[in-house]
Specification:
The protein has about 170 residues and is α+β, with helices and mostly antiparallel strands. α3 crosses α4. About 25% of the residues lie in helices and about 20% in strands. A 5-stranded antiparallel beta sheet has the order 6-5-4-3-7, with no helix packed on it. It has a two-stranded antiparallel ribbon with strand order 1-2. The radius of gyration is 24 Å and the shape is elongated. Zinc ion binds next to α3.
Length: about 170
């Protein structure tokens, strides 16, 4: 009698060298990761791996770090970024936006909204949203194009501008 755990799993029969027929369980396969708009295959993603196999990989092997890069391909991402900037500066109405991109444009706007509005100034308070210092409250010392600098016990440390969230 087969193991009750494996009774209903998909199987095939193979012949061993001494002409015996044995029952082998077939491993499940997953499809490739594809772009949500144009269905191209994405680069840098763990293709053909199941959820428990992806868990064992390191953080950088699971998905690329760039914003929306695990959902859209580079060409579609460029269009979404351009439309987000046009919509923010009132060059386009909400009616003129492509319906396939509206969901992703709003995701981009949420992430980089405070960059447009200039909320991150010297002396404003924020919390850290990513990494090992998650939830720590900091006071901004100076702002760059890419980084925010803050003081921690006489040392100045830096953090990416998308990894902090303004409190005020
Ligand atoms: Zn695409």
């Amino acid at each position: 009698m087969p193991n009750p755990n494996q009774k209903f799993k998909k199987h095939k029969s193979t012949r061993t060298p001494n002409t015996k027929v044995s029952r082998v369980i077939v491993k499940k396969k997953t499809s490739n990761h594809k772009c949500a708009v144009c269905k191209k295959t994405l680069h840098g993603m763990p293709h053909g791996k199941r959820a428990f196999e992806v868990k064992k990989l390191s953080k950088t092997q699971r998905r690329p770090e760039n914003l929306l890069s695990s959902i859209l391909c580079p060409e579609c991402r460029q269009i979404a970024y351009q439309e987000a900037v046009m919509f923010k500066n009132n060059l386009k109405d909400e009616k003129d936006l492509d319906l396939r991109y509206v969901k992703y444009i709003k995701m981009i706007m949420k992430k980089i909204e405070w960059l447009f509005m200039g909320l991150l100034k010297v002396g404003s308070k924020c919390t850290i949203m990513q990494g090992r210092n998650f939830g720590k409250k900091i006071v901004v010392d100076s702002v760059d194009e890419k980084f925010v600098y803050y003081k921690n016990k006489d040392k100045t440390e830096k953090i990416g501008i998308l990894h902090v969230f303004p409190l005020e």
